[in-house]
């Protein structure tokens, strides 16, 4: 009976009900789509960043990430590789070694990180090959060839075909020195990376820096970003026999990126809260008008024996009915809109060159998930309930005599 009364009351003022439902639906659509867009952009950012720098996972010596010491190595990479290959969800892996060295041309000297990479495998775990802007990528047959970042090449005033000298310290404390020829120049759009990194073949690195077959990183690419946690746990369990090795995921290897995402989430949620507050005031205004217009009606009902608690329940049912209709319509439309753009993507017009410099695609895709589809509607429902609670409770304190005299 109470629900039937509430349903009839909802449609007594059809225009006002439709406006309120539309406001709730619009807020819900916007929240579902914008959260999906935000999560999709994070997915793209993370994928792009890890494919340039760290990979999805790495097997490292304990303490290497913090100290970056040449002596903290993976001593038997082939044994680790066998375990990695058996991992369910591992798409590819590659070895890397790195050392800080002085890089000199005829006129200038700069400090840079020299990274030894396996040319035949590096393309499977990173986008470095696609970032080459001049020259060519390294091949397995190369000996003393190198890839330089665009800014490092500019600082050294060298071009493809020029020679640079590397001077550093080997794993055993000896002097590491060699001459390499610039085979390619890459540009990632990330100044720190382009200014401070030089790549050479891993075999050359191991020989020059006295690595004795060891590496510093086993870089792993999983089938997707969603598989990272599971693959990490599986590899950590299988590598228990290697007490000096640890498995770290991209969030541990790139804490700055995770912090940037958290900050962006906070700023996004501030916008969403403002949107919800605007909708909440619209609903509050609607129900205050309802209470004011129906004061005499409520007085008559209470005079006939209707309890204030029952009136409160009816009003809350009315508000929740409108809220649920708006949320259901908004969630459905939001999911449909998101799926359409998730299938076709959104082209960011005029920004293709800028995005390509950062390894990002021109077409961006929202990413619908259970969280992005549910967070917005649940928050709207909660705020709507709290907003409608005040007018509903106001009826409980309404004097019968004054109510009957109203209007």
What secondary-structure arrangement, pairings included, does this model have?
Layout: H1 2-10, H2 14-52, E1 57-61, H3 64-67, H4 77-85, E2 90-104, E3 109-117, H5 119-125, E4 132-135, E5 145-149, H6 150-156, E6 163-169, E7 175-186, H7 191-196, E8 197-201, H8 202-208, E9 217-222, H9 228-238, E10 245-249, H10 250-253, H11 255-293, H12 295-303, H13 308-344, E11 346-347, H14 352-357, E12 363-364, H15 370-396, H16 400-405
Parallel strand pairs: 3-8, 5-7
Antiparallel strand pairs: 1-9, 1-10, 2-3, 2-6, 2-9, 4-7, 5-8, 6-7, 11-12
Helix pairs in contact: 1-13, 2-11, 2-13, 2-15, 11-12, 11-15, 13-15
**Which regions are unreliable across 5 or more consecutive residues at pLDDT < 50?**
none
Global geometry: elongated
Structural class: alpha+beta
Rg, nearest Å: 31 Å
The number of helices is 16
Please tally the β strands and state the result: 12
Largest beta-sheet characterization: 6 strands, mixed, barrel
Approximate helicity band: 55-70%
Query: Cα distance, first to last residue?
Result: 27 Å
Q: What order do the helices and strands follow?
A: HHEHHEEHEEHEEHEHEHEHHHHEHEHH
Structural account:
The strands form two sheets. This protein has a six-stranded mixed beta barrel, surrounded by four helices. A two-stranded antiparallel ribbon has the order 11-12. The two termini are 27 Å apart. The protein contains 16 helices and twelve strands. Helix 2 runs antiparallel to helix 11. It is an alpha+beta fold and 407 residues long. It is 56% helix and 19% strand. The radius of gyration is 31 Å and the shape is elongated. Strand 2 and strand 3 form a beta hairpin.
């Amino acid at each position: 009976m109470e629900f039937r009364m509430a349903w009839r009351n909802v449609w007594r003022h059809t225009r006002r009900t439709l406006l309120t439902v539309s406001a709730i639906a619009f807020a819900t659509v916007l929240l579902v789509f914008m959260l999906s867009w935000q999560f999709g952009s994070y997915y793209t950012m993370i994928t792009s960043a890890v494919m340039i720098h760290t990979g999805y996972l790495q097997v490292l010596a304990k303490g290497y990430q913090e100290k970056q010491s040449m002596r903290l190595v993976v001593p038997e990479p082939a044994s680790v590789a066998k375990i990695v290959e058996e991992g369910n969800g591992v798409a590819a892996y590659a070895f890397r070694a790195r050392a800080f060295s002085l890089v000199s041309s005829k006129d200038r000297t700069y400090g840079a990180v020299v990274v030894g990479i396996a040319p035949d495998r590096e393309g499977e775990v990173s986008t470095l090959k696609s970032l080459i802007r001049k020259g060519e990528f390294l091949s397995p047959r190369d000996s003393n060839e190198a890839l330089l970042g665009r800014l490092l090449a500019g600082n050294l005033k060298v071009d493809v075909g020029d020679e640079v000298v590397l001077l550093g310290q080997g794993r055993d404390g000896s002097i590491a020195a060699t001459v390499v020829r610039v085979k390619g120049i890459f540009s990632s759009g990330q100044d720190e990376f382009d200014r401070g990194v030089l790549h050479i073949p891993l075999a050359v690195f191991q020989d020059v820096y006295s690595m004795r077959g060891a590496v510093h990183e086993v870089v792993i690419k999983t089938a997707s970003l969603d598989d990272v946690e599971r693959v990490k746990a599986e590899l950590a369990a299988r590598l228990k026999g290697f007490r000096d090795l640890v498995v770290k995921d991209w969030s541990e290897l790139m804490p700055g990126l995770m912090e940037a995402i958290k900050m962006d989430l906070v700023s996004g949620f501030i916008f969403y809260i403002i949107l919800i507050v605007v909708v909440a005031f619209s609903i509050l205004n609607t129900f205050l008008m309802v209470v004011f217009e129906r004061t005499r009606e409520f007085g008559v009902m209470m005079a006939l024996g209707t309890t204030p608690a029952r009136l409160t329940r009816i009003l809350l049912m009315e508000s929740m009915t409108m809220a649920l209709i708006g949320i259901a319509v908004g969630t459905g439309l939001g999911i449909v809109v998101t799926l359409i753009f998730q299938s076709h993507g959104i082209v960011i017009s005029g920004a293709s060159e800028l995005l390509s410099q950062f390894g990002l695609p021109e077409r961006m895709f929202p990413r619908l998930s259970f969280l992005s589809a549910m967070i917005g509607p649940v928050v709207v429902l909660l705020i709507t309930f709290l907003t409608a609670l005040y007018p509903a409770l106001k009826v409980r304190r309404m004097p019968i005599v004054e109510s009957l005299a109203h209007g």
